[in-house]
Amino acid sequence: MNKYFGAGNKDHANIVAYSNYPPHFKFELPMSPGKGLIIAEEQNKGFWLVHTAKYFPNLAGVIGDLFSNEKTTKDAAAFLCMSYSD
6-10, 11-15, 64-68, 77-81: which has the minimum mean pLDDT? Predict the structure, then answer.
């Protein structure tokens, strides 16, 4: 993710982010959160990040802002990152 957030030109990155806990949601869900993102940085290269952290990531921010939300750092979370390439 540092490569994406540190890049000056993000026009060539393809990002798909998904969450069962959308931004600005007003109440807690009584189930395990399912979230993730897929970033393809180059042709046939990229990664898939599956996680359970609330309000992560801030795609509009920079690498230092990824965990800036108090609710993101307050609770425990799991992260699994899988890279792919030809």
Answer: 6-10
Per DSSP, the three-state class of 6 is: helix
Q: Tell if the pTM clears 0.85, that is, is over it.
A: no
Range of the domain at 58: 2-85
Cα distances from 64 to residues 52, 53, 60, 69, 79, in angstroms, run 19, 16, 11, 11, 18
Q: What is the DSSP letter of 28?
A: -
User: In terms of C-beta density within 10 A (0-12 exposed, 13-18 middle, 19 or more buried), how is residue 8 classed?
Assistant: exposed
